[in-house]
Fold:
Amino acid sequence: MLAEIKGLNEECGVFGIWGNSNAAQIAYYGLHSLQHRGQEGAGIVVSDGEKLTGVKGEGLVTEVFQQGAIDNLNGKAAIGHVRYATAGGGGYENVQPLLFHSGNGSLALAHNGNLVNANALKHQLESQGSIFQTSSDTEVLAHLIKRSGFPTLKDRVKNALTMLKGAYAFIIMTETEMMVALDPNGLRPLSLGRIGGSYCVASETCAFDITGAEFVRDVEPGELLIINDEGITSEKFTISCNTSVCTMEYVYFSRPDSNIHGINVHSARKRMGIQLAKEAPIEADVVTGVPDSSISSAIGYAEASGIPYEMGLIKNRYVGRTFIQPSQSLREQGVKMKLSPVRGVVEGKRVVMVDDSIVRGTTSRRIVTMLKEAGATEVHVVISSPPIKNPCYYGIDTSTHEELIASTRSVEEIREIIGADSLTFLSAEGMVEAVGRKDSSENRGHCLACFTGKYPTEIYPDTLHPYEKELVR
Structure:
């Protein structure tokens, strides 16, 4: 669905490369392919072996790196980041990679995810004299590394990582090496690739396709990769827990051409649509998907049900992101700006509208209304995931039960609110089966916390929104 309107926003995207004279340019293209994961800020830091230099700014990748800005970044290694503000809010100072200089050398950090114990660690570090330059949870790692008493950077990083709780895919770069770390639950996707003799890492494999990199493997939970001029080594910085990759990566966040743990995202979404057709058989004339992430599921639903798939909704590609609008009325107007029903397809038809999720319900209501105003006689909404009933604390912008329509309402109540003739959510079991992970751990390696309320990590009280604290008292 239109995440920027409904409140389900992407986390961030990271890209890194070591050992290539065109490192900055490759990082630029890598970030461009990850732009869907964050549109509020972008940055690249390069190393020439002696110093770190960076350029960052608020806005899209093409806006930050215009007028030859990329030409000023010369080096053999680079890390980059695209950002959607979850923890720490917006502002230039929070745009990554974060770059720190000291008498012992420089350090750059790029992070995808969210640390659930960031506030506790900040209070502890500040009591010991640390002064934070940003409100980002990412900066916590830099202070922990700096304060660690271990003699080598590798050991300092490993020690610091063991103190973090939550979701994180980190890329750390100094003048002479790059380190890559994934949290013990593997909540965020992270892959290793190669371009000739150069190694690269990215949040999604679609970045490898655009940069010409060859996929090597996924980074493992609890793994630390050290990449330098000598090559690449791998170590475990902690014992990995049960793998709990964010299921919404398959449902919504990742690009359809990306692979997560060997599973193509488009294929997984199509299987979700097929499963939906089994769980929610509907008599209708046409199936349509809400662009863009729901189209794959809509195709699967159409194929399995025998109902023809049509482009009943068209997305306007040239409208700015509406989540920046200050009021809900303007956000709802943004739906009209970004989506248009195709009257010639839906008029006089019973329509199955496939979408990936419902968060607040305002966007779903507006789309159902638009389809009926365009002449649809019936609109049946089918959702390729279960009801989202619980906040996510790992990097998705849903922080309270209050903003989640399914948290306190039944499916029938939601149906009435959005004005649909019927409403069906995919079962959690059907979703997991459709993704097709071979993992033998609990939930087959999925994090289902936003659906079930069972979080794979401890959730610290100071992570909770004030409204949530009242609920747990």
In short: The first strand starts at residue 12 and ends at 18.
